[in-house]
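Much of what follows relies on a compact textual record of a protein's fold. An example makes this concrete, so a full record is given next.
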Amino acid sequence: MTTALIGSQVITTIPFNVLAAEPTQTTNKTQQVKISTPLLKNTAFNDKTGWYPILPSEVVGYDPGTDGWENASNEMYQNDAPEYGASTYVGGAAMTTASFVGNGTLHITNHGQNEFGIAQPFNTVPGHTYSFTYTAKTGDTEYGPDFIGTLNVAFSNYSGDWRAMRVPGASSPISQTGYVVPDGTAKTISFTANSTQTYIQMSVGEHDPDGINGVTISNIGDVIDTSDTTKPIINASDKTLTVGDSYNPLTGVTASDDTDGDITSKIKVTSNNVDTSKAGTYQVSYSVTDAAGNVGTKTITVTVKAAPDTTKPVINASDKTLTVGDSYNPLTGVTASDDTDGDITSKIKVTSNNVDTSKAGTYQVSYSVTDAAGNVGTKTITVTVKEPATQGAVTANTFTINQDSYVTGNFTGGVKKLSVFVNGKQLSTINVTSSPYKFYAGRNITSVNDNVVVVGYDSSGKELDRAQVALTKENPSQGTLTANPFTIGKDGYVTGNFTGDVAKVGMVINGKEYTAIQVANGSYRYYAGGKITSINDTVTMIAYDKSGKELDRAQVALTKENPSQGTLTANPFTIGKDGYVTGNFTGDVAKVGMVINGKEYTAIQVANGSYRYYAGGKIVSVNDTVTMIAYDKSGKELNRANVKLNNDAPEMGTIAANPFTIGQDSYVKGSYTGNAARVGLIVNGKEYSRVAVNGGSYQYYAGGKILTVNDDVYAVLYDAKRA
């Protein structure tokens, strides 16, 4: 019989030199083979070339008289054609053909008394029972389905030499199916291992020298250790949570099996009553099943604790009013409670107390209390000690509706405060220091049927006396008043309109009343310069008739003007050459002034973003400090710019000007020295045209240019270069 090894998958490192390229290895637990990679899924079986050539004499137990190898020249070798895989030739004729499909299927055709198969060694545990499944179908793709094939499946101890397994009888098998006709159904084979390494062999053979045996092997399954009866172990420990915590019962839980290894992914939660919204003790149960069906269980306890107590206790204490001479215990009527501890009044402590009941005054008492968790609550109350009851009386004058605005009268004794009630409604309370009194009632009293009462109180607010106000009515004058918004920093007058019998308009700022002014023609302008300074001021305009009776009030809406802004630049100035400092400006700049060595010169009006400031004779040295200053229209400084000074030796010369009499003279006259070419005139910063001069004297027509003795007038002498 000729035996050809097609290929093998190696589970652990076992010498196996049949293949020229070593197959892929899969690692399993030592001494406990659970799964072996299926034989036909090994990529080493697909389109391999260069199989190790085998001579019959190399096979252990070879007997040419009994195994059918009569011709010593017969040799088993690899046919390199990839579509055939491995072939065995006897006497020059193909005796065996193997086709590897590559999807886990192997087709083998044998001629004569050849045997062809696949084999694989793997680790086993002596005494353990193993099983695996496969599917084998008879028939031949080349010769047709009528060619009946047989399949032999055997398990043998593995001695380390694969060739010892290939010849029947060379090593006693553990178990063997014998030759069976495959029927295409899945079959399961079982065996009991008696060594640490076992060899599985699936071979196709034909005992008829002239026969053809065709078998297709597929779906070779995993080798399963069916002796596993040990339950897997779940590793889970009791947990302690706090109310409000999130909880995943599988977090941190693992499972292991003595055969399967880590089977954490198979853990199931079988029960879980944990409720993290409330404190309590709960249970979580788990189960896990290994490949052999052994079930491991575990139950843990989950304790949910109440959240830490961080709420401060509350002290219930109210302000108190005493009379001079009263006794006082600061703990009387004071209680404390806590959301967890309940009533903790007994733990209250007085931390400070300056109450002196021998004299009137206002005092403080402070308390503290601590709950079981250490949270401290505090409270401070005010204790008022008042003088003994006082005596006092109030009278009220007759009030004329549509004429009077104030309720007036007198008071005596200990009256310190007054209130006016109209039909039971209290208008307000005012402090009074001397009689008579004057209480503003405005338009709150409208009918002679109104019930108006003046009430007098002592300093503690205790009522001392009441007086009924007699009411009369006069045909009223009428009128309305409006007030326009007022912009602080911009407006000088409060303006508005009025109607009806309005004859005067007054102003009240923050309760201070200013003189009323006469008004006419339906509008008014009330000068408020310097009086309204903040948008938080309360400004009210009041309309009066000719008798001084108030007719209406209007609140003034206040706004504040945004501050003016602006920038200024100054160009370099060449002494002896330039007559003007020039530059540019932006924003709200309205005037530009000049400061030389700390001396400030008159600011000039500017416009259109640039300026020219006459500096003739003022800047005399490059060591001078010259600063240009920008102002807004109100004279507020906005920006400064220093002038860079250069020196240019000019033509030398002097100029003198005769006095000018306004209303009499028309020309500015004078004399000059040096090499002068022209004379110009500057009035209040404005430069006028230059006129040619010679002979040492000049006259410049100034008609209409010099108007007052306060004008700033300069006669300017120029050389030929600067004329």
The chain is about 0% helix and 45% strand. Residues 355 and 363 are 5 Å apart (CA to CA).
